[in-house]
Specification:
The protein is α/β, with parallel strands linked by helices and about 60 residues long. It has 2 helices and 3 strands; from the N terminus they run βαβαβ. A 3-stranded parallel beta sheet has the order 1-2-3, with helices on one face. The radius of gyration is 11 Å and the shape is globular.
Length: about 60
């Protein structure tokens, strides 16, 4: 099954709940993560997910 995992911040080992949920889903499904990236730490978290073979789509914050 293909799943789109939408979250306001990238899952990481610090944000354990989302990270573990994503890891479990990916065992049996094709998962794409959609998130926004505001801080430098979140950019590091996105790159870590990509290195673990997760497909990640980063959405830019809308300007008002």
């Amino acid at each position: 099954m293909r799943i789109l995992f939408v979250t306001p911040y990238p899952p990481s080992r610090i944000r354990v709940r989302g990270y573990e949920f994503l890891t479990q889903l990916q065992r049996e499904h094709e998962v794409t993560v959609m998130t926004q990236c505001i801080s430098e730490q979140e950019q590091v978290d996105v790159e870590a997910l990509r290195q673990q073979r997760h497909e990640v789509v980063v959405v830019q914050e809308a300007k008002r």
